[in-house]
Specification:
It is a single chain. It is rod-shaped, with a radius of gyration of 32 Å. Helix 2 runs antiparallel to helix 9, helix 3 packs across helix 8 and helix 5 packs antiparallel against helix 9. Helices cover about 75% and strands about 0% of the residues. It has one domain. It is an all-alpha fold and about 260 residues long.
Length: about 260
């Protein structure tokens, strides 16, 4: 309608009216652009808040996983230290001690792979939207956590140790099956650290054919390769403890800063 009036005013050479109506058109376009820009900015803020909340949820899940694994790997470390002590002592005569040595050897071989959930981070990175939630310094910290630290986790938690392979070979198959069943940490809840029992493993009675346990214990003690592989295992577990502590601090710091953005 206003464009028709403007055209009519131009034909009548009513320049004052032309000027007024031109200003109205320009002002209307300007207001429209501002409203559109406001809507886009509002949508970006909503997207940024949603992405930030999802990223924080991922990091909190990682914190739960780190807490659970620290508890679990502490038990693995304690078992490995008991095996180390047992190998420095004479073979026990007691049935319980023999069974405990075999059990500890098995527990010390335990591994629990883990990788941070990087789905939200990758989505933002691939879409070029990391700027929505993070400044340059925060982006570098996220990259350190999701890329550099993830590589360290893969090396430490994914590759099977030589000790694990050897122990699984030396322990009689039926004994290993027995322990895999009753030492399973299936009831351990990774998402609820602090709600689990103090031990990840149930008491595991020996199989009825105890001769298999005796043969397993003898094989472990007679293996010349077990001692150096146990030494490497202890070193790896110590490094893993430090890595989990470091990752926990990284994730906790990221959560804190993402919850209080600049």
């Amino acid at each position: 309608m206003i464009l028709q009036r403007l055209a009519t005013s131009i034909r009548k050479q009513d320049w004052f009216t032309v000027g007024i109506e031109t200003l109205i058109v320009v002002f209307g376009v300007f207001i429209g652009l501002q409203v559109n820009n406001w809507n886009e900015a509002r949508q970006h803020r909503i997207e940024a808040e949603t992405s930030r909340e999802r990223l924080i949820a991922d990091l909190r899940a990682d914190l739960d996983a780190f807490a659970t694994r620290r508890q679990w790997y502490e038990e693995v470390m304690e078992a490995a230290l008991r095996v180390d002590d047992a190998l420095r002592s004479d073979p026990p005569d007691a049935v319980d001690e023999t069974w405990r040595f075999v059990r500890d050897s098995w527990i010390a071989s335990g591994e629990w792979p883990f990788a941070p959930s990087a789905q939200v981070y990758k989505e933002l990175q691939n879409a070029g939207d990391l700027d929505l939630i993070a400044s340059g310094s925060m982006q570098r910290r996220l990259r350190d956590y999701y890329e550099d630290s993830a590589s360290e986790i893969e090396i430490s938690l994914t590759f099977r140790s030589a000790y694990t392979d050897l122990v699984r070979q030396l322990i009689e198959g039926r004994v290993g099956m027995r322990m895999a069943d009753c030492l399973s940490a299936a009831s351990f809840e990774p998402s609820l650290p602090g709600t689990n029992s103090t031990s990840s493993y149930k008491d595991c009675p020996p199989p009825e054919d105890f001769a298999l346990v005796v043969r397993s214990a003898a094989s472990l003690r007679e293996s010349t390769a077990l001692r150096p592989k146990l030494n490497a295992r202890l070193s790896n577990l110590s490094g893993l403890r430090s890595l989990l502590d470091y990752l926990d601090r990284q994730a906790a710091s990221l959560v804190s800063d993402l919850e209080t953005p600049e």
